[in-house]
Task: inverse folding
């Protein structure tokens, strides 16, 4: 049986996945494969380098220092100034690259202890691109390049944006790579029902959520015979159409609480399933 962890995207909401990973590792559930998108690529790469409770603790420490890392730091005026200067993004990509490189003990995907892949959106090809080898920092940075917030990442002759544009929760990739037991780690948005938009800014948010959730729902409905997938709960109560919540993407004040909620909700879920490793 090949066990896979599938880690979805979601910015700072991805702190929930750290709690989920802790719950899984405490029950001796060790993956043979990790696939990730965006912030899930970062969490997945760190775990793939050290698939242990100590590795999860290091990942939690990374999240505890995310505010000091400067990934999304700066005043609103500073962000507007950067956007006006670059015309494409509000934050530079260097702080995220430094954060990735500082926290990893190896530099290349093929040297990770667990098989790892992450996805990004190729601009030139308008298609998903899977990184299976090469520098980890390049791959994770490409997978995490949120349009408008971070610059597109050039690798070779291609430029890449956030993998969430093409495959937000890549269950299908795990299936195609032979996984028969899949644990899906997501940030909580799929747990909240959608409602009809009533404000101008809600229209785009609802449209994106429909597209994102539709693919995931279809993949879950069409799982091949012999493949079991468990979607771990995040413990989050999100309001996808709350504009203030969307604009506070750089607010790291709730990181620790999100980790603990993800841990508590997933621990209870796994215990109910009888998962003991």
Result:
């Amino acid at each position: 049986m090949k066990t896979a962890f599938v880690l979805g995207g979601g910015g700072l909401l991805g702190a929930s996945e750290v709690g989920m990973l802790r719950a899984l590792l405490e029950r001796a559930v060790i993956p043979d494969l990790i696939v990730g998108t965006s912030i899930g690529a970062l969490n997945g790469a760190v775990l793939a380098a050290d698939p242990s409770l100590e590795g999860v603790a290091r990942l939690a420490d990374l999240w505890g220092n995310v505010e000091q890392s400067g990934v999304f730091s700066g005043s609103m005026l500073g962000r507007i100034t950067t956007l006006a200067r670059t015309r494409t993004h509000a934050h530079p990509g260097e702080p995220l690259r430094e954060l990735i490189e500082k926290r990893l003990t190896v530099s290349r995907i093929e040297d990770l202890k667990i098989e790892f892949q992450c996805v990004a959106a190729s601009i030139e090809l308008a298609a998903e691109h899977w990184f299976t080898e090469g520098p980890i920092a390049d791959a994770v940075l490409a997978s995490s390049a949120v349009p408008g917030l971070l610059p597109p990442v050039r690798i070779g002759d291609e430029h890449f944006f956030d993998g969430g544009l093409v495959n937000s929760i890549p269950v299908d990739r795990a299936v195609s790579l032979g996984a028969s037991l899949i644990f899906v780690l997501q940030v909580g948005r799929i747990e909240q029902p959608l409602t009809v938009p009533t404000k101008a800014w809600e229209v785009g948010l609802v449209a994106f959520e429909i597209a994102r959730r539709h693919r995931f729902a279809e993949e879950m409905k069409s799982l091949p015979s012999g493949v079991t997938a468990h979607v771990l709960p995040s413990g989050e109560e999100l309001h996808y159409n709350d504009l203030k919540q969307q604009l506070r993407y750089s607010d790291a004040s709730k990181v620790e609480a999100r980790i603990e909620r993800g841990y508590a909700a997933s621990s209870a879920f796994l215990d109910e399933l009888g998962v003991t490793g």
Q: What stands out?
A: Residues 180 and 226 are 6 Å apart (CA to CA). The radius of gyration is 18 Å. The first helix runs from residue 15 to 26.
